[in-house]
Amino acid sequence: MIPASFDYFRPSTIEEAVDVLAGAGEEAKVLAGGHSLLPLLRLRLAYPTALIDVGRVAGLRGVSDRGDHVHIGATTTHDEVVRSPIVREHCPLVALATATVADPAVRHRGTFGGSLAHADPAGDLPAVALALDMVLEVRSSAGERTIPAAGFFLDYLESALAPGEILTGVRVPKLGPGWGFHYEKFHRTAQAWATVGVAAAVRQTNGTVEEVRVGLTNMGPTPVRAAAVEEAARGVEAGQNGALRRAAEQAAEGTDPPADLHAQPDYRMHLARVLTHRALVSASAHRSPLT
Amino acid sequence: MTEQLDAGAVAQQIREHDALDAPGGGSEVGRARRRKEDARLVTGRTQWTDNIQLPGMLHVAFLRSPMAHARITRVDTSAARTRRGVVGVFSGQDFAGEQGSLPCAWPVTADTVIPEHPPMAVTTVRYVGEAVACVVAVDRYAAADALEAIEIDYEPLEPVLDMTEALAEGGPKVHEAGNESFTWKFAGGDIEAAFHEAPVVIDRTYVQQRLIPSAMEPRAVVAQTDGDHFTLHSSTQIPHVLRVMLALTTGIPEHKLRVIAPDVGGGFGSKLQVTAEEVLCLLITRRLGKPVKWTESRSEGNMTVHHGRDQLQNIRVAADADGRIRGVQVKLLADMGAYLMLVTPGVPLLGAFMYNGVYKMDAYDFTCTGVFTNKMPTDAYRGAGRPEATYAIERLMDELAVEIGVDPMEIRRRNWIQHSEFPYTTICGLTYDSGNYEAATDRALALFGYDKLRAEQSDRRERHDPVQLGIGISTYTEMCGLAPSRVLGSLSYGAGGWEHADVRVLPTGKVEVVTGTSPHGQGHETAWSQIVADSLGVPFEDVAVLHGDTATSHKGMDTYGSRSLVVGGIAVVHACDKVKEKARQVAAHLMEASPDDVEFSEGRFRVRGTGTSQTIQEIALATFAAHNLPDGFEPRLDASATFDPENFSFPHGTHLCAVEVDTETGATAIRSYVAVDDVGNVINPLIVEGQVHGGIAQGIAQALFEEAVYDSDGNLLTTTMADYLVPSAADLPNFTTDRTETPATTNPLGVKGVGEAGTIASTPAVVNAIVDALRPHGVHDVRMPCTPERVWRTLRTGGGEPA
Predict the structure, then answer these.
(1) Which of A112, B305, B438, B545 has the fewest CB within 10 Å, making it most exposed?
(2) Which residues in chain B have Cβ-Cβ distances shorter than 8 Å to A290?
(3) How many domains does chain A contain in total?
(4) For residue B115, how far is the Cα from the chain centroid?
(5) Where in the sequence is the signal peptide annotated (chain A) (predicted)?
(6) Measured between alpha carbons, how far is B102 from B249 in angstroms, rounded to an integer?
């Protein structure tokens, strides 16, 4: 990698990190696992003046059970998330989606918080964050605040993080009993980003769908919550022929999918409908926790 | 979610492989030796070009044209010169007087248009990525930073991006001379008679998309000089050819230029080239008197390593009512890109003799037009012309089967050359020396479970299963062992096709082999050691193979076109034979016998009918001492051989592929893949297996994944591996492989070559399977790569081309 030159800081506490970030100017970037940022540096598509490497900041890494929610530290690697018994028990959708991120090498370096802060709609985790109503904890030299996932993803690669703010952790609400989950990822090669991805959570009682959460990956400049599907699926009999398919027909509503080498918008809309159906069927059939 | 490895099975595999490495007697040829070069290659403890560090070495970075077609109106390098660490900044104008023109060694016709090809553009750029300036600096970072300070103004010209439009009157021109480089014709038999009132005529056009060879090791060059002599390290397949061509291009006398291909991490044809960067690094080192290094980035390489394929193939077949082929007519447009590089125009010619495939016919007619466009030049890429030909004929055989209403394997059986008919001279005038298509096919069908899969296909069709099953066949052959020099001469190629070897027995009985082949992943050190061990009766471990350095290997034609074993390996055999004959003279003298009475086997010379013997090691030491040799005998146990083949070799095989197509999403998944290849006798089955697996993967990549895409301004869109999708092991199925062994009759080893077979065979097998799955939906073609979106759109529109 031959990037343009930059200053490099490696704080060891979060206090130090936010102070360094505050003083490093608007063109500073926070570096965690580097798997989104380094490619941009390598291709000289980004010219940050300073990198603040939070990889060794104490307290940012790890998963803990906080009663009504699971807390995932921002620098927890994807691999740690996938293997966490707490995640697998209480928020299996996170584990299912994270397991599809790129390849094992990337999952051992890339971080949970980094994937969200990068706000790439083609990333697998932003849609999951939306579907599960995660809450993001951020910190700056001015103090701490929380941002609900629904308000975090503002535009393509643009989040609600203000200059000087660092994502420190994420609260994943526990959904309780009766839920099934699935992440349906459609991609051209195992390492490729999702052409379209569907994160689905379904709560049933005696075969009746009580509640549905659907987040869509790569169907717009931000991850998308498929509200129309959620509405349409509520109350249907999951086993009834065609019921979930009819609900999934709403999946492309309100989306604005991109055109790229792998898919044009109309194809992505079609995929969203087909994959949402498959995700709902699978989520209906699979119960948490993962074993 | 975590993969469970079967530790016991892995341990067993390791034990089996360890057993392969055990020293021991017996035949080395045919033994699945693990490659002796791999330990250093896979650990990187070796001399990759980019690993080379020389005292005072400077680093070069190239500024590349962002325009597909433009005039350079202003160049200002002054700001870049003031940047940190910058030693020199050069534009094309600075080299204009000395850089010459990059060579094309294959003017296929007398009137082939070969435009001047300056290594660095001086007045006009003709493709995105063309070098327009460079920075020489103390490190790579300084060089890359300073590139951004170079100012170049361009006056845009209209780019030529489509071959058909390029040939239309009145459009923009890539070169003043026009957009047609050549038209080359070839014919056998009476094509008009074949098509006249033919009961069946099928006419199809196939698109061979542009591909980017993706060698694991990017290109890298290190150039140095002592003021008189020059040494060039390059990640190249062709150190010998490169030395000659660089001497002719730069004016550095050949004897003052040493070219070294150290360990090279793959090429697939992309390093069969004389590149602008190699020439420019030599010019820079000549100008500055300092050693310089350049290593490309992957994105730079995607733009500027020569591309492959990119042909538009119109193929017509005339057949009898029972499907017997009367004649085949091919009209080809081949995209040359912006310039002709080393063998650019010759690539389609290598396919010209293969459109008949394994089939008999009365007439054949081939026309190819080479077309200039404002894109990266094309050149050899694994298979070079033959994958394109095989694809067209194997796709067409399936179409013919549908037209006639018979199983696609049956249509092939009706037309192929029977085993009893070999040697067989084809309509193209090539004599296939040996082959057994029936045997390979029967074996493949058995491994595949053909009938069972057909039954499942019917069942899925009846059930209207959203996931349909298709079966694809490829009964391929290829011409390998490039090449008989006289044939190359008749095709106007600029050089011969022989290969050279030196074999020398050292005083202690160890053996050094110098080969003119230039391995870049093929395992020649292992395979050549096996050949020599058997021939001279020495232990495998006692053989060293030297290659890739023109100072130690003075003569060679290098590695490409599945030629190394079939041509270079035979040179090794001949050199060994000469060494043995010399040793026999010495042995006879020492044992006081007539040479005619001395037999040689397993490393020992024996006097027939006596118990007297001498080992080749004893003879080596006696020859070294030279105390007691026959009168007039030169004290040397070494020999050279240059082998020029009289014919090509013709590997063949049958590949069968089952693909599941999800008609809802357009996704395809290879369900099973069977390859039965006949590459003649096998020196090392493990190496052959590796070549077959890699080759199949590369052919599947063309069928499903890879395509170099330019936008309407001529910008390459697939500059990274996120856009240009090279499949990994995770994207490919397990391959079931087997072999039949019909020895070549044209060389003493009976070998045919295996470097390209998988790539040539697999692409049509996969696409045939996809089309087969979708025929009930009215689909008769899907353009490559058969991406999910393309399959989906084809399904929606029916027929062939997606809207």
Answers:
(1) B438
(2) 1
(3) 3
(4) 25
(5) none
(6) 7
Contact between B621 and B723 (Cβ < 8 Å): no
Closest by CA position to B760, among listed B469, B356, B477:
B477
CB–CB contact A4 B792 (8 Å): no
Contact A202, A275 (CB under 8 A): no
- Digit-coded pLDDT (tens) for B595-636: 999 999 999 999 999 999 999 999 999 999 999 999 999 999
The class that CATH gives domain B498-643 is: alpha beta
Encode pLDDT of B57-86 as tens digits: 999 999 999 999 999 999 999 999 999 999
Report chain A's terminal Cα–Cα distance, integer Å: 40
Query: Is A279 found in the same domain as A183?
Result: yes
* Domain assignment of residue A224, given as a range: 179-285
Write the DSSP assignment of B272-299 as a string of letters.
SS--HHHHHHHHHHHHH-S-EEEE--HH
- Which of B140, B717, B789 is closest, CB to CB, to A2? B140
Q: For chain A, give the number of residues.
A: 291
- Per CB-CB distance under 8 Å, the chain A contacts of B705 are 188-189
B376: closest CA among B117, B158, B616? B117
Interface contact A267-B730, CB threshold 8 A: no
Integer CA distances (angstroms), B627 to A48, B176, B622, B634, in order: 75, 71, 7, 12
Judge whether A108 is closer than 8 Å to chain B, CB to CB: no
Return the residue in B3, B138, B293, B789 with the most chain A beta carbons within 10 A, the one to mutate for interface testing. B789
**What is the ipTM metric for this complex?**
0.96
CATH classification number, B50-157+216-266+271-304, choose in 3.90.1170.50, 3.40.50.11540, 3.40.50.2000, 3.40.50.300:
3.90.1170.50
d(CA A291, CA B6): 20
- Nearest in space to A261 (alpha carbons), one of A160, A183, A208, A193: A193
Nearest to B739 by CA among B346, B525, B439, B519: B439
Smallest Cα–Cα separation from A18: which of A48, A47, A60? A60
Distance CA B386, CA A211 (A): 58
Closest C-alpha to B376, from B435, B291, B301, B442? B301
